[in-house]
């Protein structure tokens, strides 16, 4: 016997909340994209700040380092011009691919320039030496570098600083002061690296949580779409069923009513009353069935989570009570 297409439905639904795992490759790719954008923003901000503060230093060099003034300007141009070019081309694919190396090269050259100026400046405390500390803190605070490149940058810059300090015109001077300064610089550098790596891990964890949240939302939306389709098919199914039941019941009740009008009280008339009563009761149940608003998955109360309508798995299904169909 052929199946009536009106009652042929596929109500199968995949897992109500399908789990979409976050793969390591997806996570690494997303975090690298985030890290690139962060370091590009750091490059732009760093170059702008470094360019702006050159004006007072040019005036300072004219006042206290006049014999070396043009040497300093030539040295400044060797890092400032590439830095401005990198700023202008910061949206180019090449800069995006090599942003870590560009930041390293520009600010290492800038740090070398500052250390060179500090070796010529006999002012105590030297503004150049304070600048190198501020630059190290600034670069570490805004960049997302892995531990090897962070150690390489800070270690290389400290080596340049130490070399210029030892070769300065005044020499080491007071050994105790020199040792105290080195302890301070090394301690500050170590603290900065620890802070940078903690921030790196926090950013990584935040990226992972964001991806998992987006995937969970996508999964919930997919499950909701499937449940809506089931709800539509279920409503269509009950509409067809109720229609097919109402038609024969109506055809039954009509002749039964005619017979009840013609027959006198008798056993046959009592039997027809039973038929009419049960047929009428069944018809009312069908009307209740049609009038009820059916929801997905056993009529659970709906809730809104992350913009997706879900069902409370702890709520009890709503059932038709006998009093509702009498």
Task: Explain what this protein looks like in three dimensions.
- It contains ten helices and two strands, in the order H-H-H-H-H-H-H-H-H-H-E-E.
- It is an all-alpha fold and 326 residues long.
- The protein folds into two domains: 148 residues, no CATH class; 104 residues, Helix Hairpins.
- Helix 5 runs parallel beside helix 7 and helix 7 packs antiparallel against helix 8.
- The longest helix has 88 residues.
Shape: rod-shaped
Distance between the termini: 35 Å
What low-confidence regions span 5 or more consecutive residues with pLDDT below 50? Answer: 11-20, 294-315, 317-326
How many domains would you count in the coordinates?
Answer: 2
Largest sheet: 2 strands, antiparallel
What helical percentage do the residues reach? over 70%
Task: State the strand order across the main sheet.
Answer: 1-2
CA radius of gyration is 40 Å
Structural class: mainly alpha
Mean pLDDT: 79
Q: Compute the number of helices.
A: 10
What's the total count of β strands?
Answer: 2
Order of helices and strands: HHHHHHHHHHEE
How much of the sequence is in beta strands?
under 5%
Please render the helix and strand layout as text.
Layout: H1 24-52, H2 54-64, H3 69-88, H4 93-97, H5 99-120, H6 127-142, H7 147-166, H8 175-262, H9 267-291, H10 296-299, E1 302-305, E2 308-311
Antiparallel strand pairs: 1-2
Helix pairs in contact: 1-3, 1-5, 1-8, 3-5, 5-6, 5-7, 6-8, 7-8, 8-9
């Amino acid at each position: 016997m052929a199946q009536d297409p009106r009652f042929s439905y596929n109500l199968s639904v995949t897992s109500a909340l399908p789990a979409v795992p976050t793969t390591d490759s997806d996570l690494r790719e997303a975090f690298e994209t985030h890290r690139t954008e962060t370091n590009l923003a750091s490059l732009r901000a760093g170059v702008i700040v470094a360019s702006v503060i050159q004006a007072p230093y040019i005036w300072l060099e004219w006042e206290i380092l006049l014999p070396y003034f043009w040497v300093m300007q030539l040295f400044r141009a060797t890092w400032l011009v590439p830095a401005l070019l990198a700023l202008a081309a910061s949206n180019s694919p090449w800069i995006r691919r090599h942003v870590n190396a560009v930041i390293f090269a520009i600010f290492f050259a800038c740090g070398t320039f500052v250390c060179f100026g500090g070796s010529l400046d006999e002012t105590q405390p030297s503004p150049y030496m304070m600048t190198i500390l501020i630059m190290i803190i600034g670069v570490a605070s805004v960049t997302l570098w892995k531990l090897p490149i962070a150690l390489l940058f800070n270690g290389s810059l400290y080596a340049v600083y130490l070399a210029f300090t030892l070769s300065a015109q005044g020499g080491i001077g007071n050994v105790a002061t020199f040792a105290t300064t080195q302890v301070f610089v090394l301690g500050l550098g170590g603290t900065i690296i620890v802070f940078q790596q903690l921030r790196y891990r926090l950013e990584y964890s935040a990226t992972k949580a964001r991806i998992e949240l987006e995937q969970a939302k996508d999964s919930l939306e997919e499950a909701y779409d499937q449940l809506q389709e089931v709800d539509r098919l279920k409503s269509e199914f009950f509409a067809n069923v109720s229609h097919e039941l109402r038609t024969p019941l109506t055809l039954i009740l009509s002749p039964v009513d005619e017979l009840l009008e013609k027959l006198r009280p008798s056993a046959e008339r009592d039997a027809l009353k039973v038929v009419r009563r049960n047929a009428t009761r069944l018809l009312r149940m069908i009307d209740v069935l049609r009038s009820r608003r059916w929801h997905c998955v056993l009529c659970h109360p709906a809730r809104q989570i992350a913009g997706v309508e879900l069902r409370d798995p702890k709520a009890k299904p709503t059932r038709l009570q006998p009093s509702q169909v009498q």
